[in-house]
Amino acid sequence: MGYVLLSFSFFDVHGLSSAVFYMIIYIFISLNFFVLLLSFSYSFRKENFINSDCSNLRRLIELKNITNGSSIFLTNFSLAVIFAAMIFTLAGLPPFCVFFSKFFIYYLLFIKFSYFFGLFIMLLSIISALYYIRILRFVFFSYNSTNFFFTSPLTKLQALLLVFSFFINLFSPFFVGPLFFFVENFVFSCYLTIL
């Protein structure tokens, strides 16, 4: 939210369009990340999985901690790849679309000669990226042998949203420019009607 407030504070077309573009991208990515987390709703205990008794398999345990899902890479590779791509997207790494929304705000700050704010929020962005990468370390590299993690079946809508958002993240360098141009023209027309 700090990025949006900082770009709104300039109150010109470039600042408003950067803020609107940031909000569009971040709302889309956040909704898809929560759809992904909802698909990780249940886990089985390892000893219940080894015992093939159906009554033991019905005792479902909700995912309470992100480290409980440490075996997701072993049980469902496609959801593990989508989860990793979503974490990299939220971290703001360069090939993904959140990076471009942050980049437009950084660019705006350096055009407006706000070097201090630009360097400060870059530093904060690097620190938050380290926390996101730490989540990936817990999920993919700390194997918890007490829990095997299985996902509940995805609905068609969840699967469609996950695949759609994954491909948007993958091919984001190709559509970010036209989308930002559209948002900037829309904000400019709204800005002219207000003035």
What is the N-to-C succession of helices and strands?
HHEHHEHHHHEHH
Number of helices: 10
The largest β sheet comes out as:
3 strands, antiparallel
Q: What is the percentage of strand-forming residues? A: under 5%
* Shape by Cα distribution: globular
Low-confidence stretches: 42-61
Could you estimate the helical fraction of the residues in percent? over 70%
Q: For the record, give the distance between the C-alpha atoms at the N and C termini, rounded to a whole number.
A: 26 Å
Number of domains: 1
SS elements, strand count = 3
Radius of gyration: 20 Å
What structural class is derived from the secondary structure elements?
Answer: mainly alpha
Please, what is the average pLDDT?
78
Q: Order of strands across the biggest sheet?
A: 2-1-3
Oligomer: single chain
Q: Can you tell me about this structure?
A:
There is one protein chain. It is built from ten helices and three strands. It has 195 residues and is mostly helical. Helix 2 runs antiparallel to helix 6 and helix 2 crosses helix 9. The longest helix is centred in the N-terminal third of the chain and has 27 residues. The two termini are 26 Å apart.
Please provide a brief summary of the model.
This protein is 73% helix and 4% strand. By secondary structure, it is mainly alpha-helical.
What attributes does this structure have?
single chain, 195 residues, mainly alpha, 3-stranded antiparallel beta sheet, 10 helices, 4% strand, globular
Topology overview:
Elements: H1 2-8, H2 13-39, E1 42-45, H3 46-50, H4 54-57, E2 61-62, H5 72-75, H6 77-91, H7 97-111, H8 115-141, E3 147-148, H9 156-170, H10 172-194
Antiparallel strand pairs: 1-2, 1-3
